[in-house]
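2024-03-11 09:14:02 INFO worker-7 job=invfold-0412 stage=load source=structure_tokens
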């Protein structure tokens, strides 16, 4: 049984990685972080992922990768905050060929959700419908029903005002358009209320780097009684990617 898996969380701004104990959810190494190359093209991003794997001396070992795109059958189908040439790119096949054939790939927010539901705040909550929103360069989402993930939801792409929700309520929108947390939190509040009306979740989890500042903006959210920050904070994506890989490997083993 493989208990040590390299989790890699690829974002629009940074690429993070650490070795994770998938039994306990603990990070066994310090997290490494590299800047996402700009423009974030397949060639350049793959080089950075490869550099990360090499830095951990983890070639050909088990790896879980969370990536900021809709991922179906290992292929990328969207590119909101990365280069448009990712659309249609066979990422899983490429990673398996060039880095490790023991690679599992999923959307980055789905990975964060999986991590948080197993080892974070979701682990002790039995709510029926849980929605995790990661607020980073974009907005990622992961929806769970009784702990089971509905993959590839894109609540950051819901039409909203003059654009989509992530243009207003991602952390990048706070940095671009707002002076402090309060006015940004008003936009975030409007987005969360909209999502709440559509899905009636029992719990919202806020992830992404800004989740560690939750005490600064949570108080401005009208549904605060059912909104919590991610317990794994910004490591949720790394831990979740590794854990998702573990789940896939265990299932494969059971089938064989
Ligand atoms: C992408 C999602 C991703 C999210 C967080 C959005 O722009 O469309 O796929 O999960 O950013 O990185």
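2024-03-11 09:14:09 INFO worker-7 stage=emit residues=256
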């Amino acid at each position: 049984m493989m208990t040590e898996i390299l989790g890699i969380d690829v974002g629009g701004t940074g690429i993070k990685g650490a070795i994770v104990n998938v039994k306990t959810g603990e990070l066994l190494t310090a997290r490494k972080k590299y800047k996402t190359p700009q423009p974030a093209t397949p060639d350049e991003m793959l080089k950075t992922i490869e550099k990360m794997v090499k830095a951990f001396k983890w070639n050909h070992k088990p790896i879980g990768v969370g990536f900021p795109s809709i991922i179906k059958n290992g292929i990328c189908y969207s590119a909101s905050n990365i280069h448009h040439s990712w659309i249609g790119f066979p990422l899983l096949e490429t990673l398996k060929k060039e880095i490790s054939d023991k690679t599992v790939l999923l959307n980055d927010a789905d990975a964060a959700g999986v991590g948080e539901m197993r080892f974070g705040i979701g682990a002790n909550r039995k709510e029926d419908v849980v929605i995790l929103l990661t607020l980073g360069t974009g907005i990622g989402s992961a929806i769970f029903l009784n702990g089971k993930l509905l993959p590839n939801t894109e609540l950051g792409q819901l039409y909203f005002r003059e654009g989509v929700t992530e243009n207003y309520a991602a952390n990048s929108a706070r940095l671009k358009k707002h002076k402090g947390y309060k006015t940004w939190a008003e936009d975030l509040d409007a987005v969360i209320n909209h999502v709440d009306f559509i899905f009636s979740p029992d719990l919202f989890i806020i992830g992404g780097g800004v989740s560690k500042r939750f005490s600064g903006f949570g108080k401005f959210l009208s549904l605060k009684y059912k909104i919590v920050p991610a317990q794994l904070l910004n490591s949720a994506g790394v831990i979740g990617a590794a854990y998702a890989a573990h789940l896939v490997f265990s299932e494969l083993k059971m089938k064989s």
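2024-03-11 09:14:09 INFO worker-7 stage=report msg="The longest strand covers residues 14-21."
2024-03-11 09:14:10 INFO worker-7 job finished
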